[in-house]
Amino acid sequence: MDTKKTILIVDDSEFVRSYHSYILEQALFHVITAVDGSDGLEKLFTNTCDLVLTDINMSHMDGYEFIRRVRADPKYSSVPIIIVSTESESKDKMKGFLAGANLYIVKPSSPEMMVENVRMVMNMLRGDEED
Ligand SMILES: [Mg+2]
């Protein structure tokens, strides 16, 4: 009953990946990381992930394209996705929501806020699936 939830972190910065992993592992989540959108798709498709945290600005495949591709697969149409980006303008947020993100957090975010947001989105979407 008390199994750890798995979070996939997609970010091209090694520092951000380690920092966010540390925060979420402290909050007792299991973490998997990916270095860009295409790596993110591969990790998502080969693991069971309960939530995805993704950056936007990444070479290879950016966060918007990554989210669009995730949402295009019916199997992953409802996996919770949170964008964590330094881009703070509403046009960026709108683009993220249109791609299919559930929440948009502007970096840097306090560790407490990040954990709270992850739990909130997870519980919100889990509630939807209960019968
Ligand atoms: Mg980046």
Descriptive overview:
With 131 residues, this protein is α/β, with parallel strands linked by helices. The chain has one domain (6-125): Rossmann fold (3-Layer(aba) Sandwich). It is built from five helices and five strands; from the N terminus they run E-H-E-H-E-H-E-H-E-H. It has helices at residues 14-26, 37-46, 63-72, 90-99, 111-129, and strands at 6-10, 30-34, 51-54, 81-85, 103-106. A five-stranded parallel β-sheet has the order 2-1-3-4-5, with helices on both faces. Helix 4 links the parallel strand 4 (81-85) and strand 5 (103-106). Helix 2 (37-46) packs parallel to helix 3. The chain is globular. The mean pLDDT is 93. Magnesium ion binds next to loops.
Which residues form runs of ≥5 with pLDDT under 50? none
CA radius of gyration: 13 Å
Our measurement of the CA-to-CA distance between the termini, rounded to an integer number of angstroms, reads 18 Å
CATH architecture: 3-Layer(aba) Sandwich
> Helix content range of the residues, please?
40-55%
Instruction: Count the beta strands.
Output: 5
CATH class: Alpha Beta
Please state the overall shape, judged from the principal axes of the Cα atoms: globular
What fold name stands as the CATH topology? Rossmann fold
Secondary-structure element series: EHEHEHEHEH
The count of domains is: 1
Bound molecules: magnesium ion
Q: What strand order characterises the main sheet?
A: 2-1-3-4-5
**DSSP helical segment count:** 5
Structure class? alpha/beta
